[in-house]
Description:
The chain contains five helices and no strands. By secondary structure, the protein is an all-alpha fold. The longest helix is centred in the middle third of the chain and has 14 residues, at about 55-70.
Amino acid sequence: MSRSPILLAVLALAACSRTPGGGATLTVDYYRAHAAERTATLSTCANDPGDLRDSPNCVNAREAARVEDVGSLRNLPPMGLPAGQGGNQSTGRGASKD
Length: 98
């Protein structure tokens, strides 16, 4: 028996791998730089969380999304709260305005 059919079968199975990213493990930096690939991988992972949730590409894509989508709190714009308002106005327990 020749090795060709066995090699062909192994390659076919590798090509049909359900691992997001085509079988290769992609890094967090890769997913940070490639938003479309990150979104596609997260969609694939969300579609089959039982099998793919802990796969390296799902973990790396989630981490990249966490960093890129939220980033540092220091990078967020100001919330635009009114300045000079004392007390907690939502519960009525703030400073008296008599």
